[in-house]
Amino acid sequence: MKEKNLKKLSAERPNVVFIIADDHRGEAIRAFGDETVQTPVLDSLVASGTACRNTHIFGGLTGAVCAPSRACVNTGIPIFRAMIGKDMMIREHSSVIRPDVRLMPQTMQGAGYLTHAIGKWHNDKASFARSFEGGDKLTFHGMSEHTKVPVYDYDLTGAYPKEQEYIERTFSTELFTSVAVEFIEDYREDRPFFLYVAYTAPHDPRTAPEPYASMYDKSDIPLPPNFMREHPFDTGDMAGRDEKLARWPRDEGEIREHIADYYAMISHLDAQIGRVVEALKAKGIYEDTLIVYTADHGLAVGQHGLMGKQNLYEHSVRIPLIFRGPGVPEGKQEHALASNIDIFPTVAGLCGVDLPEETEGISLCPIFAGEIDGVRGIVGSVYRDVQRMVTDGRWKLIRYYRSPETNTGTERIQLFDLRSDPWETQDLSAEPANAGIIERLASELASWMQASGDILQDKPVLPVTSLA
């Protein structure tokens, strides 16, 4: 089919390039005020689109937060109703999406889109098979070395047996980008496409190729204001894999090196996304394509004395979310509260696609249209059976539990004023003047837990000594 006809069809219902990164925390983009990291391509998408700066993940019930976060993004449903698996909290990887739940790519396919996947899925193969009618360089693993990536070719049967898996040596970010570019260049269908590109960067091992590996000098890397040598109490997950990536107590020089390597991975990823953008422009369909950029969760990398994402501080639960394309305002940074379960409804709304009845997320399209200021009064997040969080955008309450399963964790709360303390350095929970704020947030957290089907909804939100 002639490309001008493809462009016409795309203008009526836009093509979609949905990009999801692994471990990219919300503030680590230069356009968002980080003066160290270099992200010119993402900056350009922010300048020509809308960035939803206050988007939080729903959370996870195991240390592998990637899988439940991706399930929330692709179903628009809280993990307690989107996923299945006995004893989800204590299983190392709980990744199975319920078979009766319709996913974002599955819904787009039903609306006439050709759905094509590249890269990391990390949920079950059955949910993948019912969502995509094509794909390339597919991996169902949580992580790997970036130059030793176990991948599959697309399998029409949906089985993806182990014997069909093979190793690719091209650096993962470049590998996935190259096949995404090929898909765009070769596309000739008379229907719009939904291209899902799931990177494994900037997840460790943080081994960016040159010249990116040498882009950041660790001696020039500023430590974040909330750097700590040690976290002041047991969060319930102090000895997991991620926390062992740096020595205890945390050393300033070592943390600077980790941040430099993290930023190198992000800048390399940014450049590769630029190749996708250029392919869309060369095809003549850039202006008719909705580009979405997000991540499955954030990462501490030394903040609060932590290294991983197994916590509910902003660096771990707040993610980048950028929309650019038809129906999206240009040059807007939106600070309304959002959850990652809202991403699917927003994509559907921008594409004129009806949502499945079971979807629980809320479209951000009315905010884009200027009809309302926000869709949520609060957002919450969960981690295993040891942490729960709620924020109204200014005040944030984190509730910590002691796990009977692992005998880890601490019975306590933290309260932060994100307006005056965005780095969460001052716990205000002990100040008597804040008792009313704590009680209000505790009530909202309890209601949110019940509405979400939280497995801890019957546990008290406040520890008995919190207001003594």
UniProtKB/TrEMBL annotation:
What Pfam families does the database record attribute to this sequence? Sulfatase (PF00884)
Ordered alphabetically, the record's keywords are: Calcium, Hydrolase, Metal-binding
- What InterPro entries does this protein's entry cite? Alkaline_phosphatase_core_sf, Sulfatase, Sulfatase_CS, Sulfatase_N
Asked if the record carries the keyword Manganese, the reply is: no
Please report the stretch or stretches of sequence annotated as the Sulfatase N-terminal domain: 14-353
Q: Which residues form a coiled coil?
A: none
Q: State whether keyword Ribonucleoprotein applies.
A: no
Q: Give the protein family.
A: Belongs to the sulfatase family.
The protein, known as? Sulfatase-like hydrolase/transferase
Which organism was this protein described from?
A: Paenibacillus germinis
